[in-house]
Amino acid sequence: MEGLWLFSVALSAAGAIGFICIILVLRWVLYFRKGLAWDGGAAEFNWHPVLIVTGFIFLQGIAIIVYRLPWTWQCSKKMMKFIHAALNLVAFIFAVISMVAVFDFHNAANIPNMYSLHSWLGLTAVILYCLQLVLGVGIYLIPATPVSWRAAFMPLHVYSGLLLFTSVIAVALMGITEKLIFALDNPKYKDSPPEAILVNALGVLLVLFGALILWIATRASWKREIFMQSNFNMNQINRIPVTYINDFQTRYHIIHPRREPLTFCTICK
Amino acid sequence: MEGLWLFSVALSAAGAIGFICIILVLRWVLYFRKGLAWDGGAAEFNWHPVLIVTGFIFLQGIAIIVYRLPWTWQCSKKMMKFIHAALNLVAFIFAVISMVAVFDFHNAANIPNMYSLHSWLGLTAVILYCLQLVLGVGIYLIPATPVSWRAAFMPLHVYSGLLLFTSVIAVALMGITEKLIFALDNPKYKDSPPEAILVNALGVLLVLFGALILWIATRASWKREIFMQSNFNMNQINRIPVTYINDFQTRYHIIHPRREPLTFCTICK
Predict the structure, then answer these.
(1) For B181, how many CA atoms within 13 A lie in the half-sphere containing its CB?
(2) How many Cα atoms occupy the beta-carbon half-sphere of B250 within 13 Å?
(3) Residue (of B76, B60, B70, B97) closest to B5 by Cα position
(4) Contacts of residue B204 in chain A, CB cutoff 8 Å?
(5) Which of A3, A42, A148, B61 could cross-link B213 (Cys pair, CB 3.0–4.6 Å)?
(6) Does A41 touch chain B (CB under 8 A)?
(7) Which among A163, A169, A207 is the nearest to B214, CB-wise?
(8) Which residues pair with B264 in a beta bridge?
(9) Are A112 and B192 in contact (CB under 8 A)?
(10) Distance, in angstroms, between A141 CA and closest chain B CA?
(11) Is the dihedral of CA A207, A213, A219, A220 positive or negative?
């Protein structure tokens, strides 16, 4: 069930749905709203959904699963870490610019900032994402950081990353709800005009994109496989020292790699 | 880091936050809104947030982590499955009643049904939750179902359960956003009256509750530990037949049980 073909289907679906989301958000702001500009008006606000969908959701999603892409497994782990960090950094920059656009728009129109649940959770997500980025770079890209720290921090890094990604999608859905209620008038949101249907569909597709990314990211058998090195290989697997498990408080998965002889092993770090 | 004390802290925090959420939603509808009734009016609508928070979020969260509670580990697996299913069934019933309340209110007030993204995703979540419940009972509670089916379906069951739980919280956050925008008038939502602050805080606590449940549910070392039986025990762990792994396409985790001798092992099924 978890073979390469299923991975390809899930990856293709995620890519296609993410791409459609970007098309839909552009269609929304360019066709139904006042386009894109940087003038403090509604067209500046429109950068907010565009940058959130393209950067904070799509790019972040790709950053999460970049280790899973089989054609990257020949790249060094260090290279993949840099790509993972770079994609997350771009996503973060997109998120910050998108927030500046909203604050500019609110200030120009004398609308209070930070009153809604959407704004509370959104700002919290951006701050925690920044913290995750700084900690991730400090722990996984600075060579001096002990390997034991990396292993110990990994469960929290993975959990926080997936939780933040999920939260960002939830916050986006709240933002869509807010915007449609405020912006649609004659016909209203409750009259289901074409704009409402299009943006509701965007929301549904964002959920599907998130669900696929989370599925890909959490399948153990789709993890980047690395040769067992140093004191780990399949001949020695029966002699894993218990003290090693104790020391690093980590888990070792003996998995059945897809359609390949048992010469690989996945280690959670 | 993943010891019993941390589990206790996470569990206590989840319980306390879940309890506060129930208090806040009751405070919202009883103090700021028109209380609870079943008359087709606003007081009937108020059952919607109350039943969603108490049933579809709190009870579902408890149902998810019920296997993790150490004082239940002496109970039989079958008993725990019944408790898990029963809690989910009650959560589902609460969700259905809460939806009936909304449809009644909408129909009485001539408000269209099913126009918002909140309603689209909410109804989808309830339908999929029902499907998850039916499949779960069919596969894990009917004795005739082959063990191999149970093992094969488990990754999807776990993933779907956690995704649905997360989605329900996201949909609740959208519902809170909608309700505050529609219901608050003079002062409006943007003026941040006490009701808005209270319900925003409820939204933040729902996210924290969800984050804690997901953390507890996804820690491998907090899984229900079972004695290795039949052909599995720690003396035989080095001789796990590869064919067994192939056949069931499942993963075997050799973990370090917390502060206990290595006489237990967790098996993912």
Answers:
(1) 19
(2) 21
(3) B70
(4) 117, 120-121, 124
(5) B61
(6) no
(7) A163
(8) B227
(9) yes
(10) 23
(11) negative
pTM here? Answer: 0.86
Among partner residues A178, A204, A214, which is closest to B120 by beta-carbon distance? A204
Q: Which residue of B lies nearest to A213 if distances are taken between CA atoms?
A: B163
Distance from CA of A238 to the nearest CA of B (A): 5
Residue A21 at interface with chain B, using a CB cutoff of 8 Å:
no
ipTM over 0.90: no
Helix (H) or strand (E) holding A266: strand A266-267
Write out the CATH class of domain B4-224: mainly alpha
d(CA B191, CA B67): 44
Read off the pLDDT of residues B133-155 as tens digits, 9 standing for 90 and up.
999 999 999 999 999 999 999 99
**DSSP label at residue A75:** S
Cα–Cα separations (whole angstroms), residue A121 to A83, A170, B201: 27, 9, 10
- DSSP conformational letter for A144: T
* Adjacent-strand bridge partners of B253: A253, B266
Residue A1 or residue B84, greater confidence: B84
Describe the crossing of helices A117-140 and A147-183 by its angle, rounded to 10 degrees.
160
Report domain extents, chain B. Answer: 4-224, 225-269
Chain B from 78 to 137: CB within 8 A of any A CB: 111-112, 115-118, 120-121, 124
Q: How far is A209 from chain B (nearest CA, A)?
A: 12
Regions in chain B scoring below 50 on pLDDT: 1, 226-269
CB contact under 8 A, A253 and B255: no
Q: Which residues of B touch A171 (CB under 8 A)?
A: 173
Which residue, among B166, B208, B250, would best test binding to A if mutated, counting the most A CBs under 10 Å from its CB?
B166
Does position A219 have pLDDT exceeding 80, yes or no? Answer: yes
Q: Which of A2, A116, A190 sits opposite B111 (nearest CB)?
A: A190
Whether residue A234 is predicted with pLDDT greater than 60 in this model: the reply is no
Those residues whose C-beta lies under 8 Å from the C-beta of residue A210, and which sit 6 or more positions away, are A57, A61, A165, A166, A169
Separation of alpha carbons B269 and B245, rounded Å: 13
Residue A234, CB half-sphere, CA atoms under 13 Å: how many?
14
Element (H, E) at A230: none
Average predicted confidence (pLDDT) for chain A: 86
Q: Map chain B to HEC letters.
A: CCCHHHHHHHHHHHHHHHHHHHHHHHHHHHHHCCCCCCCCCHHHHCHHHHHHHHHHHHHHHHHHHHHHCHHHCCCCHHHHHHHHHHHHHHHHHHHHHHHHHHHHHHHHCCCCCCCCHHHHHHHHHHHHHHHHHHHHHHHHCCCCCCHHHHHHHHHHHHHHHHHHHHHHHHHHHHHHHHHHHHHCCCCCHHHCCHHHHHHHHHHHHHHHHHHHHHHHHHCHHHCCCEECCCCCCCCCHHHCCHHHHHHHCCCEEECCCCCCCCCEEEECC
